[in-house]
């Protein structure tokens, strides 16, 4: 049966996993799920430089493992996770950046902390917000997560930037600002509590003192005749939680490598035998502090179980959705691989058709070609120049040859009309090309929008190439059919149009009572007026043809290109894929390594959060 202690262990495990997977609220990790880290409670150790922070941590752990020295020693946050093991088990430590190595010699742990700090900051006094993650497994600890932060300072020393004071405060605030962070404020007893850097900062972020635990160190170093009862009993500065006094090892004990267990015993003896503090002895010391923090952590977790469970459930839903997008592992047999490829192609084809038919944007651009580009191109054809009096006279004269025409210059008409119809080839070809490029763009967009294809870059490329090749074939058919429409207009002129011309002459000829202005002898068939009438007649015929082609060119383009793209865009590709063997199909389904890694990380997160949900649910029912 799960217990609250199990959940504290689980919270530690989730925090560690969040860090491994990049789901933490600080640093440079992938911030996909940073709120989960923030929802989990932890304890941040805050204090001024040389306030005794490191000694307090070592007392809680029962091991001498932190770097020591003067000035700024802690230059990167240290996320310390304590895991209680069974009695008699060997103590060891593990770093997150060295997961395969166990440290049983804690002097090597200290050296690795120093070396890992120097790797990022160099052998200087610079600081870095990137944390070091350390786990310690021991029967002498309680399950707890502590974050050791650089000591607050008031001035920059040589080798530090001028901004170091604000930089450290900003770093510390980034942790203690979080509402689920328990603040362990370390202050030395031999200094005025009113000047404590830790208390000042804690008061800013936690004015009610609900999250702050005050720790008073160096009680044994106070001047004779003085004590810290005003602080420890809450008269000098009151917090919601009781103050805890700590007596750290002396420098002489450190130099002699006095065992931490012996140091704890000496600490207990100090409080028990002190005339000032003996009445508080049961609530003093590093062992009591560790238990107090563990109890508070348990209380915070109890209060936060509903919100943590809700957040984990939401995260699981998001990860399940992401796994659906990323796709499941690929089968190894050829039949299953072929089926998967065809399913992916169908998903793409569905999206492509939605673009054409209006379910998605893009298909309207094809109508824009017919409604705007084609009419505009037809209007811009140079018929004014082609049907100028000078050009008409030249064409008609060349058509007549040595024998001028007697009544109507039929050959001249034919040549003028046929040469004018050639101009329609340009807009016809341009319409085919414009629709072709729209279709190519829709293919590109559709491939990008097919989520299932994202994991297979090789298949994406092959599919795009096959689609472009098919569209090229459709374009060639579109060219042939559309230009054939233009050639058909040139091959056979509408007879009815020409039959009207003699009638018009009769209606305006001599002896016709309806003639308003009878022609004079000067109205010769070789005057400019005669050629203007020819140009006008040809222009009317060309206008009639233009209206016809404005309607038939779109029909041809849609029939040869759009309709075929909807019906048979992937037919040739299906034939090719059906002939491939298992090895060739596997190449098509070769995944992007980055995507494979993303799926693996997603799967690990999913398993972690499902496990977390199950265990937290079990505790919630047994509370």
UniProtKB/TrEMBL annotation:
Region annotated Disordered sits at 504-526
Q: Where is the Dynamin-type G domain?
A: 37-306
The cross-references to PROSITE patterns, in alphabetical order and at most eight, read: G_DYNAMIN_1, G_DYNAMIN_2, GED
Database matches in Gene3D superfamilies: Dynamin, middle domain, P-loop containing nucleotide triphosphate hydrolases
Q: Which GO terms describe its cellular component?
A: microtubule; phragmoplast
Protein family: Belongs to the TRAFAC class dynamin-like GTPase superfamily. Dynamin/Fzo/YdjA family.
Protein name from the UniProt record: Dynamin-related protein 1E
Organism of provenance: Urochloa decumbens
Question: Where is the organism placed in the taxonomic lineage, from the top?
Answer: Eukaryota, Viridiplantae, Streptophyta, Embryophyta, Tracheophyta
């Amino acid at each position: 049966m799960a217990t609250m202690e199990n959940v504290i262990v689980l919270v530690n495990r989730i925090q560690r996993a969040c860090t491994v997977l990049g789901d933490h609220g600080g640093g440079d990790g992938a911030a996909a799920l940073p709120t989960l880290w923030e929802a989990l409670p932890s304890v941040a150790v805050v204090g001024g430089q040389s306030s005794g922070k490191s000694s307090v941590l070592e007392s809680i752990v029962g091991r001498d493992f932190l770097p020591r020295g003067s000035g700024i020693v802690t230059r990167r946050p240290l996320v310390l996770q304590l895991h209680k093991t069974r009695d008699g088990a060997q103590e060891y430590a593990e770093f997150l950046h060295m997961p395969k190595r166990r440290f049983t010699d804690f002097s090597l742990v200290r050296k690795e902390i120093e070396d890992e700090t120097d790797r990022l900051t160099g052998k200087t006094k610079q600081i870095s917000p990137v944390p070091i993650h350390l786990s310690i497994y021991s029967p002498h600890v309680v399950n707890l997560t502590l974050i050791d932060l650089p000591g607050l300072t008031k001035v920059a020393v040589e080798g530090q930037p001028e901004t170091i004071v604000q930089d450290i405060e900003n770093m510390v605030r980034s942790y203690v600002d979080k509402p689920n962070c328990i603040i362990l404020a370390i202050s030395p007893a031999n200094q005025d509590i009113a000047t404590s850097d830790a208390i000042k900062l804690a008061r800013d972020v936690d004015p009610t003192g609900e999250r702050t635990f005050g720790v008073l160190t160096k009680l044994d170093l106070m001047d004779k005749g003085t004590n810290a009862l005003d602080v420890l009993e809450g008269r000098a500065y009151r917090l919601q939680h009781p103050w805890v006094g700590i007596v750290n090892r002396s420098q002489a004990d450190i130099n002699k490598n006095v065992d931490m267990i012996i140091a704890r015993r000496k600490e207990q003896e100090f409080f028990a035998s002190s005339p000032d503090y003996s009445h508080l002895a049961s609530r003093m010391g590093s062992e009591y502090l560790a238990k107090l923090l563990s109890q508070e952590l348990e209380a915070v977790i109890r209060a936060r179980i509903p919100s943590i469970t809700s957040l984990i459930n939401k995260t699981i839903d998001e990860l399940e959705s992401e796994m659906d997008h990323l796709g499941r592992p690929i089968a190894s047999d050829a039949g299953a691989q072929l089926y998967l490829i065809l399913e992916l192609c169908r998903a793409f084809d569905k999206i492509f058709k939605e673009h054409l038919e209006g379910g998605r944007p893009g298909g309207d651009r094809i109508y824009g070609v017919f409604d705007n580009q084609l009419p505009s191109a037809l209007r811009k054809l140079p018929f004014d120049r082609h049907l100028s009096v000078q050009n008409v006279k030249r064409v008609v004269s060349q058509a007549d040859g040595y024998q001028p025409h007697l009544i109507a210059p039929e050959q001249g008409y034919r040549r003028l009309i046929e040469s004018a119809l050639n101009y329609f080839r340009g807009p016809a070809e341009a319409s085919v090309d414009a629709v072709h490029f729209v279709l190519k763009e829709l293919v590109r967009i559709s491939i990008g929008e097919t989520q299932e294809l994202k994991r297979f870059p090789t298949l994406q490329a092959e599919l795009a190439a096959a689609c472009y090749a098919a569209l090229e074939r459709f374009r060639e058919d579109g060219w042939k059919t559309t230009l054939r429409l233009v050639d058909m207009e040139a091959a056979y002129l509408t007879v009815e149009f020409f039959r009207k011309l003699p009638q018009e002459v009769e209606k305006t000829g001599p002896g016709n009572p309806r003639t308003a202005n009878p022609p004079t002898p000067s109205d010769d068939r070789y005057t400019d007026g005669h050629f203007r009438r020819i140009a006008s007649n040809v222009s009317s015929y060309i206008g009639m043809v233009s209206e016809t082609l404005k309607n038939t060119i779109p029909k041809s383009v849609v029939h040869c290109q759009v309709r075929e793209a909807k019906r048979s865009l992937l037919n040739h590709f299906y034939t090719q894929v059906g002939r491939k063997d298992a090895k060739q199909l596997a190449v098509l389904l070769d995944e992007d390594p980055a995507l494979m890694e993303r799926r693996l990380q997603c799967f690990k997160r999913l398993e972690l959060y499902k496990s977390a949900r199950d265990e937290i649910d079990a505790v919630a029912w047994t509370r």
